[in-house]
Amino acid sequence: MERFDIIRGEFRPRRKDNLRPWAEGLVGRVFEWEAAWVIESGPYAGEWALLPRDKTGFPYGWVPASDVIEVPNDGAKRRP
Questions:
Q1: What digits encode the pLDDT tens for the residues 35-44?
Q2: Domain limits at 17?
């Protein structure tokens, strides 16, 4: 992945104990994400921070790349 890359992916956080209340209803939904920066410290160090491209569908913040499962453009979901 490189900065400004766009992926289409399902929001599937590994941890749910630290989710913001507004984010709980977005789990399992598909969004377009843009790679913004590499996270430097904390539990997600070394991962890309992804920003939602549609701020109305996913209105706040960023997510670590590991919380997004890429969905191919043909609509078929790729499972880990």
A1: 999 999 999 9
A2: 6-70
Cα distance between residue 65 and residue 15, in whole Å: 13
Confidence class of residue 80 from pLDDT cuts 50, 70 and 90?
Answer: very low
50 and 33 Cβ atoms separated by less than 8 Å: yes
Question: Does any domain span residue 76?
Answer: no
65 in any annotated domain: yes
| Alpha-carbon span 61 to 31, nearest angstrom | 14
**Which pair of tokens denotes residue 58?**
């996913």
Residue 19 pLDDT? 85
